Amino acid sequence: MTEQFGSYTLLDRIGIGGMAEVFLARRVGVEGFEKDIVIKRIRPHLSVEPSFISMFLGEAKLAAQLNHANIVQIFDLGKINESYFIAMEYVAGRDLSAVIPKAKATGIPFPVEYALKVVSNVCEALHYAHNRADAMGNPLHIVHRDVSPENVRVAWTGSVKILDFGIAKAATQLHETKAGEIKGKLCYMSPEQVMGKEVDHRSDIFSTGVLLYECLTGLKLFSGDSDLAIMNNVIEGKIYPPSYFRDDVPEEVEAIIMRALEKERKKRYANANDMQFEIDTFLSRHEFTPSSVHLSNFIKQLFKDELEAEQEQRKLRETPARGTPNSRGAARGTPAGKGGGKSPGPPPPPPPGESQVYVVPAEALQVDTSGEAVHVTLEHDVRGKLLRLAEARGLAAEALVRDIVTQFLKYHD
Fold first, then answer.
1. How far apart, in whole angstroms, are the C-alpha atoms of residue 74 and residue 219?
2. Which helix (H) or strand (E) holds 65?
3. In the prediction, which pLDDT does 117 show?
4. Were 25 and a residue from 8, 236, 268, 293 both cysteine, which residue would form a disulfide, CB within 3.0 to 4.6 Å?
5. What is the DSSP string of 303-364?
6. Phi-psi bin for 39: left (phi > 0), alpha (psi -120 to 50), beta?
7. Active site residues per annotation
8. Is the Cβ–Cβ distance between 86 and 60 less than 8 Å?
């Protein structure tokens, strides 16, 4: 899909929730400058709620002041037509919400060292945000409020980024008026947040403890059949130590987790830097201290098949359209000025069991199947794009259609 959204081209929708649609997009500048970014577009029904928009804009402006290697950067905030949006840094990789179950599915527990490496970076980002001040030195009192697997992304390069600073508070206000829409988030909240009390940076520390617990055990720390049941479990604070589910969790690591998960916030770490210090101290004394390269290799290996598929899809999307049907020929084997841009003659007979593909011009999109042939007739502008893309890839148009359909069906079975 492509859609023009102001000066941004939306390439693909990569997420959707109750609050926003998320798109992979591109910003094009002078002299061929291009940059992939993420557009988070607020859903239309929320744009008419003044209280939500006011909170959303205020928090997003605060988040835009954050500039840290472990925090996804916000580039732009605005409104196009009737849609408010945030343009932010694109991080190619996977959220922990995908990494944790993937590691569990392999039958190999998430390595303790890698989990600590990720959470150490999370702590560093949180400490920076919690202590951020404005240009006049006034504390901004930023609290994330939604430290969860969905909001921690591990890049293919091994870097770790926290997402959605500045959005959680507005989302919380929205959920307070729309009961039931915070299911799935409650299990990462601190007791004080669940009870609706004022939260500070120590709430994020609790959530980080929940995150580390889930990385190591593969289990949600707090669960239940309903929101009320989850809330009661969080408030009661009955926690089995992670070693109950995984016997290779070192005592020092378990102590770090349990301190972060103290029910009373004054018993938790005083700040995220203290938690990071204990994690890094353990790693420095451990027989193996992972680098970003190690984490990168782990993530790439874990998602090897998906990464290869994404790279192939990107090649299809990124191949430049060179020439035009009238000036350089429609596809391989069609000389310029001959055939008037028509598709070349029928390709060689297909392998046994496969259907022949023909691409022919037409005024309307129509697909006709008969016997061992598939006749694909396309509108003029669509066919032109197809032919230019085929030429750029050195393929016959028919072969490109076959490849596109095959790839599409592979992921839409």
1. 32
2. none
3. 97
4. 8
5. THHHHHHHHHHHHHHHS---S-HHHH-SSTT--TTSGGGPPPSPPSPPPTT--EEEEEE-SS
6. beta
7. 146
8. yes
State the burial class of residue 342 (Cβ atoms within 10 Å of its Cβ: 0-12, 13-18, 19+): middle
Q: Which residues of the chain, if any, have pLDDT below 50? A: 175-184, 321-348, 350-356, 361-371
Identify which of 131, 121, 208 has the alpha carbon closest to the alpha carbon of residue 161: 121
The token pair that represents 46 in the structure block? 């929320």
How much is the pLDDT for 260?
98
- The pair phi, psi for residue 61, each rounded to 5°, is -65, -40
Cα–Cα distance measured from residue 213 to residue 176, given in angstroms and rounded to the nearest whole number:
27
Could you give phi then psi for residue 74, rounded to 5 degrees? Answer: -95, 125
Rounded Cα–Cα distance for residues 23 and 39 (Å): 5
Report d(CA 273, CA 189) in Å as an integer: 20
| Predicted pLDDT at 330 | 37
Domain boundaries, the chain: 1-90, 92-316, 319-332+353-413
Place of tokens 């393929």: 395
The number of C-alpha atoms within 13 Å of 401 and in the hemisphere containing its C-beta is 23
Q: What pTM was estimated for this model as a whole? A: 0.73
Q: What is the CATH number of domain 1-90?
A: 3.30.200.20
| pLDDT of amino acid 340 | 42
Matching residue, tokens 């196009």: 80
Order of all β-strands in the sheet with 160-162: 93-95, 152-155, 160-162
pLDDT in tens, 236-292: 989 999 999 999 999 999 999 999 999 999 999 999 999 999 999 999 999 889 999
Helix/strand/coil for 51: helix
The span from the CA of 58 to the CA of 39, in Å, is: 18
In the CATH scheme, what is the homologous superfamily, with its name and number, of domain 92-316?
Answer: Transferase(Phosphotransferase) domain 1 (1.10.510.10)
Distances (CA, A) of 255 to 111, 242, 245: 18, 10, 15
